[in-house]
Amino acid sequence: MLRKSRVLLIIVVLVAVAVPALAGGWVVITLDSLPGEIRAGETLSVGFMVRQHGQTPTNEVSPHLTATNSATGETVEASATQSGETGHFTVEVVFPSEGQWEWSIAAAPFAHEGKLAPLTVLPAVAANAEAASSPAALPVREMMRWSALVLLAAAAATAVVGLKRRQVAPAPAAGD
Q1: Following DSSP, what letter does each residue of the chain receive, concatenated?
Q2: Is the pTM higher than 0.85?
């Protein structure tokens, strides 16, 4: 009986010592804002804060983003860099394809991985649509519009001047 009591006491002491050793090993990751429209092939920049114990901003971490396309299993990873105030980081990532992407941000050495709501990545913008709205195409369109307006204004001015000349009767000659 005495032997069982000692073993039980040793187990209780070991558990009591182990619990404080595990305390404080967590962080909270808070996004600056939710991402807006995301297109395949375009860079997405995400800012976030890392707070140890959910309170104290910390730079003593190495955050990274991991994302997986739900349909294809394709994975992307990107490391964050510290930017601005203590605990603030920014990560830039390019999603190579459209679809639903599951993503998370982890802040090593802490084991917590902040899973976030899935992202919907839209298809890349078509090259033809980009060419039609490119700065080089816009001046030609604008020039054609303005040229048409100038020609219309010149024709109207010519018509008005012609009408005024016809309406003005010649002055009678002196001596008539």
Answers
A1: -HHHHHHHHHHHHHHHHHHHHHTT--EEEEESS----EETTSEEEEEEEEEETTTEE--S-EEEEEEEETTT--EEEEE-EE-SSTTEEEEEEE--S-EEEEEEEEEETS--EEEEEEEEEEPPPPHHHHHHTSTTHHHHHHHHHHHHHHHHHHHHHHHHHHHHHHHSPPPPPTT-
A2: no
